[in-house]
Amino acid sequence: MTFNHNNKQFNISRYPKSENRSLRPWSAADEHVLKHLAGLDIATDSLALYNDRFGFLSCILNKIAPTNVVDYKSQEKACRMNIKANRLKTTTDQMVTSLTPIPHVVQTAVIKIPKSLDLFRLQLHQLHPHLRAKSVVICSFMTRNFSPSMPAIAEAFHADVEQTKAWKKSRLLILKKKKPVKKASILNNLKWKEDIVLQQYFGVFSAENIDTASRFLIDHIKLDDTDKRILDLGSGNGILAVAMRAQKKDCDIHLMDDSFLAIESAKLNLTDERTHFHFNDTLDEFEDDFFDRIVSNPPFHFEYENNIEVALGLFNQARRCLKDGGRLQVVANRHLNYKTHLRKLFDKTTNIAQNEKFVIYECMK
Ligand SMILES: C[S@@+](CC[C@H](N)C(=O)[O-])C[C@H]1O[C@@H](n2cnc3c(N)ncnc32)[C@H](O)[C@@H]1O
């Protein structure tokens, strides 16, 4: 899609691509930020961008060299792809994650408020030491997604929190005057069984409890002697891998997730040498016929978008990476009806368990 800004045309695409034409690579909230920034004088190397999903703002503001805080591998790929497609300058040190320090003082920060307000809190917490007394944080959101917790969280970090009027169904929260704030924990603890507590960074899937679908799947994973190499696909905090490790010590377990905070959380929960971590959104790094078993509670939404295309893409790649005779076990909401898609990919797809809400499929290659 093209966007004109100050007589320059930008071409911004989504990664991964989507067949759904209603899904766009930027929103009115992003345009609202540009409109607001137009009246400000922003110096080079003083701007930080958070949650710029496809790189819309990174491209348009490229001249002032923003630091891009990127917490997803797919986001990193999308930003790089669009920066390259628009022949803009890229420097690797301008991409950091929420857990790594920003390499300069931040005079202005732009945060597209994520759906997980826990993640919003984590990002404000991590940004805080890089701000100076006069720094401004511009937070954008679509009005339909507003929650009173948004300003409440912001007020924990800033003395002055103002909300703008709506423009194209979006609004901004303008945060000024940073407050003195003590370093706090950015981890949640989740109880799993009597003696196991999992840790995860704010914003990682299922913050309060171990997900019900994951519990259901765990009850139906029975590893055997043939399971030497296993993949927990879309691992989140690593709960499926933790349960599998409790069953079997003599196997290699790989965990992969698109979310940096998820993979860093999983590292806190599994520390043995035969567990391997992959911060990625595709299985490209794995050879064909590599795994004996792949288990997954797959993603079906990203932020506010519901979309099963990512999960279907992962199933396709899972098939390639499974050995002949290997299996993919997937838990899903019954209404998603993955069976039709899985049947096209796998020689044998069986429904091995179901309850009122979820179904578990086992697919054999
Ligand atoms: C439904 S959650 C399951 C998390 C965890 N396995 C559990 O059971 O609690 C799906 C996970 O898939 C991850 N994800 C989304 N897109 C992905 C992709 N393309 N590749 C790998 N992981 C992805 C999300 O970050 C999320 O952690």
Describe the protein's architecture and organization.
By secondary structure, this protein is an alpha/beta fold. The protein folds into 2 domains: 2-178, Vaccinia Virus protein VP39 (Rossmann fold, 3-Layer(aba) Sandwich); 187-364, Vaccinia Virus protein VP39 (Rossmann fold), CATH 3.40.50.150. It is built from 10 helices and 20 strands. The chain has helices at 28-37, 56-60, 73-85, 117-127, 149-155, 212-218, 239-247, 260-269, 309-321, 339-345; strands at 2-5, 8-11, 47-50, 67-69, 95-96, 106-112, 131-142, 158-163, 170-178, 187-192, 196-201, 229-233, 252-257, 275-279, 291-296, 301-302, 305-306, 322-333, 348-354, 358-364. A 7-stranded mixed beta sheet has the order 5-4-3-6-7-9-8. The chain has a 7-stranded mixed beta sheet with strand order 14-13-12-15-18-20-19, with helices on both faces. Strands 1-2 form a two-stranded antiparallel sheet. Strand 12, helix 7 and strand 13 form a beta-alpha-beta unit. The longest helix has 13 residues, at 73-85. The model has no long low-confidence stretch (mean pLDDT 95). S-adenosylmethionine is lined by residues 74, 205-206, 211, 214, 234-236, 239-240, 256-259, 262, 281, 297, 299, 310, 314. Residues 74, 205-206, 211, 214, 234-236, 239-240, 256-259, 262, 281, 297, 299, 310, 314 line the site of S-adenosylmethionine.
